[in-house]
UniProtKB/TrEMBL annotation:
<dbReference type="GO" id="GO:0003677">
    <property type="term" value="F:DNA binding"/>
</dbReference>
<dbReference type="GO" id="GO:0003887">
    <property type="term" value="F:DNA-directed DNA polymerase activity"/>
</dbReference>
<dbReference type="GO" id="GO:0006264">
    <property type="term" value="P:mitochondrial DNA replication"/>
</dbReference>
<dbReference type="GO" id="GO:0008408">
    <property type="term" value="F:3'-5' exonuclease activity"/>
</dbReference>
<feature type="compositionally biased region" description="Acidic residues">
    <location>
        <begin position="96"/>
        <end position="105"/>
    </location>
</feature>
<feature type="region of interest" description="Disordered">
    <location>
        <begin position="90"/>
        <end position="118"/>
    </location>
</feature>
<dbReference type="InterPro" id="IPR002297">
    <property type="entry name" value="DNA-dir_DNA_pol_A_mt"/>
</dbReference>
<protein>
    <submittedName>
        <fullName>DNA polymerase subunit gamma-1, mitochondrial-like</fullName>
    </submittedName>
</protein>
<dbReference type="GO" id="GO:0005760">
    <property type="term" value="C:gamma DNA polymerase complex"/>
</dbReference>
C-alpha cells in the first residue's frame, strides 16, 4: 500500500476508515422506526404528487391544450384503445358468486333473520350493481 500511495495521510485515512463501526444502542430501534415512517410518508407524498402531475398532463389532452405547452406540444398524444383479455371460459357457480366472508356475518349475531337486515339488503344491491365492474378486472391485461 505504501508503494502505491506513499503519502502518510492516505495511510492514516485508510487505517481510520478500517476501524469504523456503527454504534447500536437503545436508540437504534427508535431511529430505525422513525426512518421507516419517514420513508413511507415521503413515498406516499411522492405518489400523490406524481398522480397530480399525471392528472394535469392528462387534462391537457382535452381540447388540445397540449399544443399551447412549450414542453409538451411535440410529444406523442395519440390515445390507444385498452385491449381486454378474452372473456374467461369458466364461470363461477351461483354459490361462489354469492358467497360472503365470515366477518360479514359476525356483524349481526343477535339472532335476527339476516336477509331482512337493511345492511345485508344494501350490500346485496351494491354487489349486484357492481358485478359487471368486478368482472372486468379479470379481463384487464
Amino acid at each position: 500500500f505504501l508503494e502505491r500511495f506513499p503519502h502518510p495521510v492516505t495511510l492514516a485515512g485508510m487505517l481510520e476508515l478500517s476501524t469504523a463501526y456503527l454504534p447500536v444502542n437503545n436508540n437504534w430501534v427508535k431511529y430505525f422506526n422513525e426512518s421507516c415512517q419517514t420513508f413511507n410518508d415521503l413515498n406516499v407524498e411522492m405518489k400523490s404528487l406524481l398522480m397530480d402531475k399525471c392528472d394535469q398532463a392528462c387534462s391537457l389532452l382535452h381540447d388540445d391544450k397540449y399544443k399551447d405547452s412549450l414542453w409538451l406540444w411535440d410529444q406523442d398524444w395519440s390515445v390507444k384503445d385498452l385491449k381486454l383479455k378474452k372473456k374467461a371460459s369458466k364461470t363461477l357457480s351461483v354459490e361462489q358468486e354469492t358467497e360472503e366472508p365470515e366477518e360479514f356475518y359476525e356483524i349481526n349475531k343477535n339472532g335476527e333473520d339476516q336477509t331482512e337486515d337493511e345492511f345485508v339488503k344494501r350490500r346485496r344491491e351494491l354487489v349486484e350493481k357492481f358485478k359487471p365492474l368486478m368482472q372486468t378486472k379479470d379481463r384487464l391485461p
